Amino acid sequence: MTSRGGAMCIDLDNLPALSLGATVFAGGGGGDPRIGELMALKAIRELGPVEVKPLDAFDDDDLIMPCGMIGAPTVMVEKIPNGGEGRVIREAYERHFGRPVAAVMPFEMGGINGVLPVTWAAYAGLPLVDADFMGRAFPELQMLTPHLYGMAGSPSVITDERMQTVVFDTMDNIWLEKLVRNCVASLGGSACGGLYPMTAGAAQRPAIIGTLSRAVRMGEAIRRGGEDPIAAISEVAPVTRLGQGKVVDIERRTSGGFVRGSALIEGLGADKGRLFRLEFQNENLVVLEDGEALATVPDIITLLDTHTGHGLVTEGIRYGQRIEIVAFPAPEVWTSKEGLAAVGPRAFGYDFDFVSVVDRHA
Protein backbone atom coordinates (compact mmCIF):
# COMPACT_ATOMS: atom_id res chain seq x y z
CA MET A 1 0.00 0.00 0.00
CA THR A 2 1.23 3.50 -0.81
CA SER A 3 3.07 5.26 2.00
CA ARG A 4 3.22 9.04 2.28
CA GLY A 5 5.31 10.54 5.06
CA GLY A 6 5.24 7.25 6.97
CA ALA A 7 1.45 6.85 6.72
CA MET A 8 -0.31 4.30 4.53
CA CYS A 9 -2.98 5.66 2.23
CA ILE A 10 -5.39 4.86 -0.59
CA ASP A 11 -4.58 6.91 -3.68
CA LEU A 12 -5.17 6.90 -7.43
CA ASP A 13 -2.54 4.17 -7.93
CA ASN A 14 -3.84 1.54 -5.51
CA LEU A 15 -7.58 2.27 -5.44
CA PRO A 16 -8.19 -0.14 -8.38
CA ALA A 17 -6.26 -2.83 -6.48
CA LEU A 18 -8.47 -2.31 -3.41
CA SER A 19 -11.55 -2.71 -5.60
CA LEU A 20 -10.22 -5.93 -7.15
CA GLY A 21 -9.14 -7.44 -3.86
CA ALA A 22 -12.34 -6.52 -2.04
CA THR A 23 -14.35 -8.31 -4.73
CA VAL A 24 -12.26 -11.48 -4.48
CA PHE A 25 -12.69 -11.60 -0.69
CA ALA A 26 -16.40 -10.71 -0.87
CA GLY A 27 -17.49 -14.21 -1.78
CA GLY A 28 -19.76 -12.87 -4.51
CA GLY A 29 -21.40 -10.20 -2.34
CA GLY A 30 -20.92 -6.63 -1.23
CA GLY A 31 -22.24 -5.16 -4.49
CA ASP A 32 -20.54 -4.28 -7.76
CA PRO A 33 -17.53 -2.09 -6.83
CA ARG A 34 -17.42 -0.07 -10.07
CA ILE A 35 -19.69 2.74 -8.86
CA GLY A 36 -17.95 2.97 -5.50
CA GLU A 37 -14.56 2.99 -7.20
CA LEU A 38 -15.59 5.87 -9.50
CA MET A 39 -16.93 7.85 -6.53
CA ALA A 40 -13.72 7.26 -4.57
CA LEU A 41 -11.66 8.18 -7.62
CA LYS A 42 -13.43 11.54 -7.84
CA ALA A 43 -13.03 12.20 -4.12
CA ILE A 44 -9.30 11.39 -4.15
CA ARG A 45 -8.73 13.60 -7.20
CA GLU A 46 -10.44 16.49 -5.44
CA LEU A 47 -9.13 16.02 -1.92
CA GLY A 48 -6.05 13.82 -2.08
CA PRO A 49 -5.22 10.35 -0.73
CA VAL A 50 -7.04 8.86 2.24
CA GLU A 51 -4.89 7.83 5.19
CA VAL A 52 -5.20 4.22 6.41
CA LYS A 53 -4.37 3.51 10.05
CA PRO A 54 -4.29 0.34 12.14
CA LEU A 55 -6.90 0.12 14.86
CA ASP A 56 -4.33 0.25 17.62
CA ALA A 57 -3.15 3.66 16.37
CA PHE A 58 -6.31 5.24 17.81
CA ASP A 59 -7.00 6.20 21.39
CA ASP A 60 -9.32 3.76 23.17
CA ASP A 61 -12.12 6.32 23.43
CA ASP A 62 -11.97 7.44 19.77
CA LEU A 63 -15.31 6.92 18.02
CA ILE A 64 -15.22 4.56 15.01
CA MET A 65 -17.93 4.63 12.30
CA PRO A 66 -18.43 1.27 10.50
CA CYS A 67 -20.47 1.93 7.35
CA GLY A 68 -21.45 0.79 3.88
CA MET A 69 -24.40 -0.04 1.62
CA ILE A 70 -27.25 -2.33 2.65
CA GLY A 71 -29.74 -4.10 0.39
CA ALA A 72 -29.99 -6.01 -2.87
CA PRO A 73 -26.83 -5.79 -5.01
CA THR A 74 -28.93 -5.92 -8.22
CA VAL A 75 -30.61 -2.68 -7.15
CA MET A 76 -27.31 -0.98 -6.26
CA VAL A 77 -26.18 -1.18 -9.89
CA GLU A 78 -28.80 1.39 -10.92
CA LYS A 79 -29.88 3.07 -7.66
CA ILE A 80 -26.57 4.67 -6.86
CA PRO A 81 -25.61 6.75 -3.80
CA ASN A 82 -25.06 10.48 -4.24
CA GLY A 83 -21.89 10.67 -2.13
CA GLY A 84 -23.32 12.64 0.75
CA GLU A 85 -24.64 9.71 2.73
CA GLY A 86 -21.46 9.33 4.75
CA ARG A 87 -21.78 12.90 6.00
CA VAL A 88 -25.40 12.30 7.07
CA ILE A 89 -24.45 9.11 8.93
CA ARG A 90 -21.47 10.78 10.60
CA GLU A 91 -23.47 13.82 11.73
CA ALA A 92 -26.21 11.58 13.17
CA TYR A 93 -23.64 9.67 15.22
CA GLU A 94 -21.93 12.84 16.39
CA ARG A 95 -25.28 14.22 17.62
CA HIS A 96 -26.05 10.94 19.36
CA PHE A 97 -22.70 10.49 21.09
CA GLY A 98 -21.92 14.18 21.60
CA ARG A 99 -18.40 13.95 20.14
CA PRO A 100 -16.73 13.73 16.74
CA VAL A 101 -16.19 10.56 14.74
CA ALA A 102 -12.45 9.83 14.64
CA ALA A 103 -12.33 7.34 11.76
CA VAL A 104 -14.35 5.53 9.10
CA MET A 105 -14.28 1.73 8.74
CA PRO A 106 -15.89 -0.61 6.20
CA PHE A 107 -18.31 -2.85 8.07
CA GLU A 108 -17.54 -5.58 5.52
CA MET A 109 -14.62 -6.13 3.18
CA GLY A 110 -16.48 -6.87 -0.02
CA GLY A 111 -17.35 -5.30 -3.37
CA ILE A 112 -18.62 -1.73 -3.23
CA ASN A 113 -18.51 -1.82 0.57
CA GLY A 114 -14.75 -2.18 0.44
CA VAL A 115 -14.32 1.07 -1.54
CA LEU A 116 -17.32 3.33 -0.81
CA PRO A 117 -16.03 4.18 2.71
CA VAL A 118 -12.94 5.61 0.99
CA THR A 119 -15.21 8.27 -0.54
CA TRP A 120 -16.86 9.11 2.77
CA ALA A 121 -13.51 9.25 4.58
CA ALA A 122 -12.09 11.59 1.91
CA TYR A 123 -15.00 14.03 2.13
CA ALA A 124 -14.92 13.95 5.95
CA GLY A 125 -11.15 14.42 6.12
CA LEU A 126 -10.92 11.28 8.28
CA PRO A 127 -8.66 8.22 8.17
CA LEU A 128 -9.78 4.71 7.33
CA VAL A 129 -9.31 1.88 9.81
CA ASP A 130 -7.45 -1.14 8.41
CA ALA A 131 -10.07 -3.62 9.64
CA ASP A 132 -13.72 -4.61 9.29
CA PHE A 133 -16.34 -6.71 11.08
CA MET A 134 -16.72 -9.60 8.59
CA GLY A 135 -13.46 -10.31 6.79
CA ARG A 136 -15.66 -10.92 3.73
CA ALA A 137 -19.33 -10.10 2.97
CA PHE A 138 -22.48 -11.57 4.52
CA PRO A 139 -26.12 -10.70 3.75
CA GLU A 140 -27.64 -9.96 7.18
CA LEU A 141 -26.93 -7.38 9.89
CA GLN A 142 -26.49 -9.84 12.76
CA MET A 143 -23.74 -11.50 10.67
CA LEU A 144 -21.04 -9.14 11.93
CA THR A 145 -18.47 -10.14 14.50
CA PRO A 146 -19.66 -7.76 17.28
CA HIS A 147 -22.91 -9.76 17.40
CA LEU A 148 -20.91 -12.81 18.51
CA TYR A 149 -19.68 -10.84 21.53
CA GLY A 150 -23.11 -9.55 22.53
CA MET A 151 -22.43 -6.03 21.22
CA ALA A 152 -25.32 -3.95 19.91
CA GLY A 153 -25.63 -2.89 16.28
CA SER A 154 -27.76 0.06 17.43
CA PRO A 155 -27.93 2.92 16.99
CA SER A 156 -28.01 2.23 13.27
CA VAL A 157 -28.39 5.13 10.84
CA ILE A 158 -29.97 4.41 7.44
CA THR A 159 -30.12 7.01 4.68
CA ASP A 160 -30.85 6.93 0.96
CA GLU A 161 -29.70 9.04 -1.97
CA ARG A 162 -32.48 11.57 -1.19
CA MET A 163 -31.02 12.00 2.32
CA GLN A 164 -34.11 10.46 3.92
CA THR A 165 -32.75 9.21 7.22
CA VAL A 166 -33.97 6.79 9.88
CA VAL A 167 -32.20 5.95 13.15
CA PHE A 168 -32.88 2.52 14.68
CA ASP A 169 -32.42 1.64 18.34
CA THR A 170 -33.63 -1.94 18.69
CA MET A 171 -33.88 -4.51 21.48
CA ASP A 172 -31.37 -6.82 19.77
CA ASN A 173 -29.53 -7.37 16.50
CA ILE A 174 -32.09 -9.82 15.09
CA TRP A 175 -34.75 -7.11 15.35
CA LEU A 176 -32.27 -4.66 13.86
CA GLU A 177 -31.97 -6.88 10.78
CA LYS A 178 -35.74 -7.24 10.44
CA LEU A 179 -36.54 -3.53 10.81
CA VAL A 180 -33.66 -2.21 8.74
CA ARG A 181 -34.40 -4.73 5.97
CA ASN A 182 -38.01 -3.56 5.79
CA CYS A 183 -36.88 0.07 5.78
CA VAL A 184 -34.38 -0.54 2.98
CA ALA A 185 -37.04 -2.33 0.93
CA SER A 186 -39.33 0.70 1.36
CA LEU A 187 -36.51 3.00 0.23
CA GLY A 188 -36.28 1.11 -3.04
CA GLY A 189 -34.18 -1.93 -2.23
CA SER A 190 -30.86 -0.36 -1.23
CA ALA A 191 -29.59 2.38 1.08
CA CYS A 192 -26.47 3.39 2.99
CA GLY A 193 -25.99 2.76 6.66
CA GLY A 194 -23.87 2.94 9.76
CA LEU A 195 -23.85 -0.10 12.05
CA TYR A 196 -22.22 -1.13 15.33
CA PRO A 197 -20.69 2.25 16.20
CA MET A 198 -18.17 1.91 19.00
CA THR A 199 -14.92 3.17 20.42
CA ALA A 200 -11.59 2.00 19.11
CA GLY A 201 -10.98 0.27 22.44
CA ALA A 202 -14.24 -1.69 22.20
CA ALA A 203 -13.52 -2.58 18.56
CA GLN A 204 -10.27 -4.33 19.45
CA ARG A 205 -12.14 -7.52 20.35
CA PRO A 206 -14.46 -8.02 17.34
CA ALA A 207 -12.42 -6.35 14.57
CA ILE A 208 -10.82 -8.52 11.91
CA ILE A 209 -7.50 -6.76 11.56
CA GLY A 210 -5.65 -5.86 8.36
CA THR A 211 -8.39 -6.72 5.89
CA LEU A 212 -8.19 -3.48 3.90
CA SER A 213 -4.44 -3.73 3.33
CA ARG A 214 -4.82 -7.44 2.49
CA ALA A 215 -7.42 -6.56 -0.17
CA VAL A 216 -4.97 -4.08 -1.69
CA ARG A 217 -2.24 -6.74 -1.75
CA MET A 218 -4.63 -9.19 -3.40
CA GLY A 219 -5.61 -6.68 -6.07
CA GLU A 220 -1.99 -5.82 -6.78
CA ALA A 221 -1.13 -9.52 -7.12
CA ILE A 222 -3.96 -10.04 -9.61
CA ARG A 223 -2.92 -6.99 -11.64
CA ARG A 224 0.60 -8.33 -12.07
CA GLY A 225 -0.45 -12.00 -12.23
CA GLY A 226 -0.40 -12.39 -16.00
CA GLU A 227 -1.76 -15.65 -17.37
CA ASP A 228 -1.94 -17.50 -14.04
CA PRO A 229 -4.29 -15.59 -11.73
CA ILE A 230 -4.63 -18.53 -9.32
CA ALA A 231 -0.89 -18.53 -8.70
CA ALA A 232 -0.98 -14.77 -8.14
CA ILE A 233 -3.85 -15.06 -5.68
CA SER A 234 -2.10 -17.82 -3.76
CA GLU A 235 0.75 -15.37 -3.02
CA VAL A 236 -1.62 -13.44 -0.75
CA ALA A 237 -4.07 -15.98 0.66
CA PRO A 238 -4.44 -19.78 0.72
CA VAL A 239 -6.80 -20.70 -2.10
CA THR A 240 -8.45 -23.99 -3.02
CA ARG A 241 -9.39 -24.51 -6.67
CA LEU A 242 -12.75 -26.28 -6.95
CA GLY A 243 -13.17 -26.39 -10.70
CA GLN A 244 -13.23 -24.58 -14.02
CA GLY A 245 -16.23 -24.23 -16.25
CA LYS A 246 -18.80 -22.26 -18.20
CA VAL A 247 -22.00 -20.78 -16.78
CA VAL A 248 -24.83 -22.62 -18.55
CA ASP A 249 -27.79 -21.44 -16.49
CA ILE A 250 -28.48 -18.61 -14.04
CA GLU A 251 -31.61 -18.04 -11.94
CA ARG A 252 -31.72 -14.84 -9.92
CA ARG A 253 -34.52 -12.96 -8.16
CA THR A 254 -34.61 -9.84 -6.01
CA SER A 255 -36.96 -9.78 -3.02
CA GLY A 256 -36.98 -8.45 0.52
CA GLY A 257 -33.68 -6.63 0.14
CA PHE A 258 -31.78 -9.73 -1.03
CA VAL A 259 -30.69 -11.31 -4.30
CA ARG A 260 -31.31 -15.04 -4.17
CA GLY A 261 -30.65 -17.65 -6.81
CA SER A 262 -28.32 -20.23 -8.28
CA ALA A 263 -26.02 -20.87 -11.22
CA LEU A 264 -25.14 -24.08 -13.05
CA ILE A 265 -21.54 -24.35 -14.21
CA GLU A 266 -20.51 -27.00 -16.74
CA GLY A 267 -16.95 -28.22 -16.34
CA LEU A 268 -14.34 -27.43 -18.96
CA GLY A 269 -10.80 -28.65 -19.61
CA ALA A 270 -9.67 -31.05 -16.90
CA ASP A 271 -13.13 -30.68 -15.31
CA LYS A 272 -15.08 -31.64 -18.46
CA GLY A 273 -18.04 -33.86 -17.54
CA ARG A 274 -18.53 -32.26 -14.12
CA LEU A 275 -21.54 -30.10 -13.24
CA PHE A 276 -21.41 -27.60 -10.39
CA ARG A 277 -24.33 -25.82 -8.74
CA LEU A 278 -23.66 -22.52 -6.96
CA GLU A 279 -26.35 -21.17 -4.61
CA PHE A 280 -26.36 -17.62 -3.23
CA GLN A 281 -28.17 -15.06 -1.05
CA ASN A 282 -26.36 -11.86 -2.00
CA GLU A 283 -23.20 -13.87 -1.23
CA ASN A 284 -22.21 -17.33 -2.47
CA LEU A 285 -23.42 -19.87 0.10
CA VAL A 286 -22.54 -23.31 -1.22
CA VAL A 287 -21.05 -25.12 -4.23
CA LEU A 288 -22.55 -28.57 -4.88
CA GLU A 289 -21.59 -31.43 -7.18
CA ASP A 290 -23.88 -34.47 -7.43
CA GLY A 291 -25.69 -33.20 -4.33
CA GLU A 292 -22.51 -33.10 -2.26
CA ALA A 293 -21.05 -29.86 -0.91
CA LEU A 294 -17.60 -28.91 -2.19
CA ALA A 295 -17.49 -25.71 -0.12
CA THR A 296 -19.92 -23.82 2.11
CA VAL A 297 -20.22 -20.67 4.16
CA PRO A 298 -18.53 -19.33 6.16
CA ASP A 299 -15.60 -20.19 3.86
CA ILE A 300 -15.30 -17.61 1.08
CA ILE A 301 -16.52 -19.00 -2.26
CA THR A 302 -15.58 -16.83 -5.23
CA LEU A 303 -16.03 -17.04 -8.98
CA LEU A 304 -13.05 -15.69 -10.92
CA ASP A 305 -12.96 -14.70 -14.57
CA THR A 306 -10.73 -17.36 -16.14
CA HIS A 307 -8.75 -14.86 -18.21
CA THR A 308 -8.32 -11.92 -15.81
CA GLY A 309 -8.62 -13.43 -12.34
CA HIS A 310 -11.11 -10.72 -11.39
CA GLY A 311 -13.81 -11.73 -8.95
CA LEU A 312 -17.46 -11.84 -10.00
CA VAL A 313 -20.29 -10.54 -7.84
CA THR A 314 -23.51 -12.55 -7.86
CA GLU A 315 -25.44 -9.94 -9.84
CA GLY A 316 -22.72 -10.05 -12.50
CA ILE A 317 -22.93 -13.79 -13.26
CA ARG A 318 -23.95 -14.27 -16.93
CA TYR A 319 -24.60 -17.18 -19.27
CA GLY A 320 -21.48 -18.24 -21.13
CA GLN A 321 -18.90 -16.82 -18.73
CA ARG A 322 -15.73 -18.89 -18.35
CA ILE A 323 -14.89 -19.02 -14.70
CA GLU A 324 -12.74 -20.59 -12.02
CA ILE A 325 -14.49 -21.62 -8.80
CA VAL A 326 -12.20 -21.07 -5.82
CA ALA A 327 -12.56 -20.93 -2.05
CA PHE A 328 -10.63 -19.34 0.80
CA PRO A 329 -10.70 -20.36 4.47
CA ALA A 330 -13.08 -18.30 6.60
CA PRO A 331 -11.69 -15.87 9.17
CA GLU A 332 -11.18 -17.97 12.29
CA VAL A 333 -13.88 -16.22 14.32
CA TRP A 334 -16.60 -17.56 11.99
CA THR A 335 -15.65 -21.20 12.59
CA SER A 336 -16.23 -20.95 16.32
CA LYS A 337 -19.42 -22.41 17.80
CA GLU A 338 -20.98 -18.93 17.96
CA GLY A 339 -19.76 -18.04 14.48
CA LEU A 340 -21.21 -21.14 12.87
CA ALA A 341 -24.52 -20.59 14.64
CA ALA A 342 -24.68 -17.17 12.98
CA VAL A 343 -23.29 -17.86 9.50
CA GLY A 344 -22.83 -21.63 9.05
CA PRO A 345 -24.82 -23.64 6.49
CA ARG A 346 -27.69 -24.30 8.93
CA ALA A 347 -28.14 -20.54 9.47
CA PHE A 348 -29.11 -20.38 5.78
CA GLY A 349 -31.45 -23.38 5.88
CA TYR A 350 -29.10 -26.16 4.76
CA ASP A 351 -29.37 -29.53 6.46
CA PHE A 352 -25.66 -30.21 6.86
CA ASP A 353 -22.79 -28.99 9.00
CA PHE A 354 -19.79 -26.93 8.03
CA VAL A 355 -16.59 -28.67 6.99
CA SER A 356 -13.74 -26.35 6.07
CA VAL A 357 -12.66 -26.30 2.45
CA VAL A 358 -9.12 -27.14 3.59
CA ASP A 359 -10.31 -30.35 5.27
CA ARG A 360 -12.63 -31.29 2.38
CA HIS A 361 -9.86 -31.07 -0.18
CA ALA A 362 -6.81 -32.07 1.87
Task: Describe, in short, the structure shown.
The chain has about 350 residues and is α+β, with helices and mostly antiparallel strands. It is built from 12 helices and 20 strands.
Q: Characterize the biggest β-sheet.
A: 8 strands, antiparallel
Tally of DSSP helical segments:
12
**How large is the share of residues in beta strands?**
25-35%
CATH topology of the largest domain: CV3147-like fold
The overall average pLDDT, rounded, is 93
Number of strands: 20
- Head-to-tail CA distance between termini: 33 Å
Low-confidence stretches: none
* Level-2 CATH architecture of the largest domain: 3-Layer(aba) Sandwich
Radius of gyration: 19 Å
| CATH class label of the largest domain | Alpha Beta
Q: What portion of residues is helical?
A: 25-40%
Estimate the global geometry from the Cα principal axes.
Answer: globular
Give your account of this protein's structure.
- The protein is an alpha+beta fold and 362 residues long.
- It has two domains: 2-212, CV3147-like domain (CV3147-like fold, 3-Layer(aba) Sandwich), CATH 3.40.1610; 239-360, CV3147-like (Beta Barrel), CATH 2.40.390.
- Helix content is 30%, strand content 30%.
- The chain is built from twelve helices and 20 strands.
- The protein has helices spanning 15-25, 33-47, 73-76, 85-97, 112-124, 145-148, 173-186, 200-203, 211-223, 229-234, 337-343, 357-360; strands at residues 2-4, 7-10, 50-53, 63-71, 101-106, 128-129, 131-132, 156-159, 165-168, 190-194, 198-199, 208-209, 240-255, 258-267, 275-281, 283-289, 292-296, 300-305, 311-312, 322-328.
- The strands form four sheets. An eight-stranded antiparallel β-sheet has the order 17-16-15-14-13-20-18-19. Strands 4, 5, 8, 9, 10 and 11 form a six-stranded mixed β-sheet that branches.
- Strand 16 and strand 17 form a beta hairpin.
- The longest helix has 15 residues, at 33-47.
- It starts with a strand and ends with a helix.
- Residues 172-357 form the S-Me-THD-like C-terminal domain.
- InterPro entries: S-Me-THD-like_C, S-Me-THD_C_sf, S-Me-THD_N, S-Me-THD_N_sf.
- This is DUF917 domain-containing protein.
- Residues 14-169 form the S-Me-THD N-terminal domain.
